[in-house]
Write a sequence for this structure.
């Protein structure tokens, strides 16, 4: 009888922990978003580029502290991604016990992102250590892969460099390192890495990669830099000099590329999302503080189209998914802390107004066709909320608490 109960319990844990397996063996190179193989841009916070949620076939994964949880989309129930019947998961009182939990990922503060790709979970782990004899700090950063239920963990690769940012798109892990200006692509089929982009090739001084995205068959790199060291030093000395900012778009099929930039003085290019397979961005003349931003759409190698949308203020942010347009209202930079969003349908008719919890450290995630998500971080703990888009269409902006983690 005990054996039967154990088998039943194991079976229950298997189906309640993680998504079903539907592994893709061939990449679909359609120039649009493809589920289960593409960078999940709608689950990335635009302002912080932070990932804490990933969509899978029948639910979601999210990471709080060092643990990974699975959300069943049918009832939005939450369970740690662990199938061990005797494990207390995030309630374990010792570090050793916590690390033995299947749901445990990593304690890394600098790089806490994880990604769901091709029915596997990919995570980062900092394995750096101090060498005893030389007392030298040895840097080792690794990417790991597990099955959708958190089991069968295996190392993908390890490098002796500090990984700054990374994501997965169409069978390639793209990452940057702290010690150089290179973007590297690691092919999951051939297990080989090669340089995708060298920031020094643009001939700018103090070149910085501000953002890295992917959609369809294109990679999008937000880049900034100064025309010369002299110009940079003038900026450091206090002169009103802004870096040159642009997006570099690289096609992964034929390696053709183009730049998206602004001709406005003192302008920056702000990524606003993807819509109708186009790259959306705004630009504004920051030398003229009273001038609102302009929203543009780009497709087919920099054919720019001005969209019929009017910003009221310089600091407003634009978000768009398949159902709604969301505008984060702000007259000044301080107003961004208020997190008030006006919601419009695709005919630009306002359907709701969402007053999210206040805070600069909070994150807004567009999510999928069913739910949007909102992360709230305070000195007392963290909360993750969700909001039904079916309810939102009716004007219902009630937030549901999905998970809460309290600081001790």
């Amino acid at each position: 009888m005990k054996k039967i109960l154990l088998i039943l319990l194991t079976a229950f844990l298997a189906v309640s922990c993680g998504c079903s397996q539907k592994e893709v063996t061939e990449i679909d190179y359609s120039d649009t978003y493809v589920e289960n193989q593409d960078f999940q841009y709608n689950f990335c916070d635009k302002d912080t580029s932070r990932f804490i949620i990933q969509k899978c076939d029948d639910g979601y994964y999210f990471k709080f502290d060092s643990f990974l949880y699975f959300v069943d989309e049918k009832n939005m129930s939450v369970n740690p991604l662990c199938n061990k019947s005797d494990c207390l998961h995030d309630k374990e009182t010792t570090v050793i016990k916590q690390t033995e939990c299947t749901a445990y990922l990593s304690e890394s503060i600098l790089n806490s992102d994880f990604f769901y790709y091709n029915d596997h979970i990919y995570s980062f782990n900092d394995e750096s250590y101090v060498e005893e004899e030389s007392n030298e700090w040895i840097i080792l950063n690794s990417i790991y892969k597990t099955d959708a239920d958190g089991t069968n963990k295996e190392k993908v690769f390890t490098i002796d460099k500090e990984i700054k940012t990374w994501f997965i798109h169409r069978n390639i892990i793209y990452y940057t390192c702290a010690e150089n200006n290179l973007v590297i692509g690691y092919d999951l089929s051939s297990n080989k890495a090669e340089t995708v982009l060298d920031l020094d090739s643009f001939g700018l001084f103090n070149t910085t990669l501000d953002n890295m995205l992917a959609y369809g068959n294109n990679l999008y790199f937000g880049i900034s830099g100064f025309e010369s060291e002299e110009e940079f030093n003038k900026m450091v000395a206090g002169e009103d000099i802004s870096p040159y900012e642009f997006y570099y778009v690289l096609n992964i099929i034929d390696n053709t590329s183009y730049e998206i930039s602004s001709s406005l003085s003192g302008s920056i290019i702000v990524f606003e999302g993807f819509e109708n397979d186009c790259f959306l961005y705004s630009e504004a003349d920051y030398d003229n503080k009273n001038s609102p931003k302009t929203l543009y759409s780009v497709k087919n190698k920099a054919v720019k189209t001005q969209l019929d949308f009017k910003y009221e203020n310089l600091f407003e942010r634009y978000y768009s998914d398949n159902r709604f347009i969301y505008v984060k209202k702000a007259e000044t930079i301080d107003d961004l802390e208020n997190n008030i969003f006006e919601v419009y349908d695709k005919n630009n008719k306002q359907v709701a107004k969402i007053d999210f919890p206040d805070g600069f450290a909070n994150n807004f995630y567009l999510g999928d066709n069913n739910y949007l998500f909102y992360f709230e971080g305070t000195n007392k703990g963290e909360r993750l909320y969700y909001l039904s888009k079916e309810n939102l269409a009716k004007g219902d902006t009630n937030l549901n608490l999905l998970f809460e983690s309290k600081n001790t």
